[in-house]
Design a protein that fits this description.
The chain is mainly alpha-helical. Helix content is 36%, strand content 4%. The protein has three helices and two strands, in the order αααββ. The radius of gyration is 30 Å and the shape is elongated.
């Protein structure tokens, strides 16, 4: 399916694109090449091929669940203005 200049003008109007007359031939060629690529992809025989939900359908490698950092809560809260039972105390914002 090849687009003509009038088709591209209609598409540009519907998409609210302000194409200049000088841009119409280049835009027409670009859209025709895109549609040609779609036609090529639709012509590929895909019989017997199961569709994929994601191109990388593989199990994710998981790292071991190990503690790698030491608890530094007391060191972090030592510089805080106010803490209580391991929590930061902040002023009331909402009444």
């Amino acid at each position: 399916m090849a687009l003509e200049r009038s088709d591209v003008e209609k598409i540009a109007h519907l998409a609210r694109l302000g194409l200049k007359d000088a841009d119409l031939p280049r835009t027409t060629d670009a859209l025709n090449s895109i549609l040609g690529l779609v036609d090529q992809m639709q012509a590929v025989n895909t019989d017997g091929i199961a569709p994929l939900a994601h191109p990388l359908e593989a199990s994710q490698r998981l790292r071991p669940d190990q503690v790698t950092e030491h608890n530094q809560r007391e060191a972090y809260q030592a510089v805080a203005p106010a803490t209580e039972s391991g929590l930061y105390l902040v002023p009331k914002v909402i009444e």
